[in-house]
User: Fold this.
Amino acid sequence: MREEWKFAYKHDTRILLDDDCPPILPLPHIEGMMLCHYEYRNEDIQSKFKGEFDFLHLAPHLPTTYCEIIIDDSYWKHPFMPNYPEHNDEEKLVTVMNVSGTLITVLRLIGFNRCITPCILKNGSLSAAPNCEDGSIEFYPHHPILLPMPMLNEGKARLSREDFEWVCKAHLTLYRLFETNDLTPSMTAMSYYYHDMPLRAKMSLIWAAIEDLLRPGKSGTRFGIRSRGAMLLGRSEEEIEDFYKHFGKLYDRRSAATHGRKFSYNRGLSITTDNRRLEADLDALGTSYVLLCEILIRVIDKGLIFTDSELNELEEQYKEKFPK
Assistant:
């Protein structure tokens, strides 16, 4: 583990609220849920896990883990989750993954973008593990192999009180939207952007999510994406025109990534610091991710998925404003 990676993770995953770094930060919008400061100090906790290889799977992530989500699901009953107590273990696990996954997504939207989610621990937590009985902690990995990328730029190291209030509200909204709508493309793209996987695949996932949220209509995919996205994000005519051009340029890079043309260094681009084409592709990937975040924030602030009629109206409004 490179030391600068550890430093960057430490100061972007240990949640600071204003100037305070509380060891426990309750999330008042969902009872029984909290963020807890954690720092691994080489404690011998391997015996606490039920599976023989559970700790070995988790161990590579511990040096960069400084906060964990703790859930006490005994609070999850009527009126918030009236059916949860009657669910079986598999159904409860899915709910826990959805609640924690939407929280991590919202934290990334506000700027805490180095969240690592390799697993869920049942019957224990990392901070409580030394006091747990041997073999009591059950381990559920999210993926067989999960290597987080060291995204060191543009991270946020603290939450203002306003940020925290938005996170709480947005998390509850996104969780309810996720339960009633298929947001799988957006949630997948938001997660895999931070995983060690080919950049071409990341670009394709991001644009699959953008197209899923904007659902272009009869005027064609490219124009539909550009006009709807520009009208949704732009606040003035000048901004709308800028976004329209921006969406167009990024959509071209999306097409290159999706249809097998040169993108990043997967097809004939050498890895050198002065390779302008590679730098442009990396920039296109990052800015495409930012566009997805901005669109998803609009959805969360609205509290509803944009309907086909609303998106069609945005497209028609663009045609009226810019008839050329």
Observations:
- Strands lie at 24-26, 33-37, 67-71, 119-122, 138-141.
- The chain has two domains: 3-163, 189-321.
- Residues 189-321 form one domain.
- The mean pLDDT is 87.
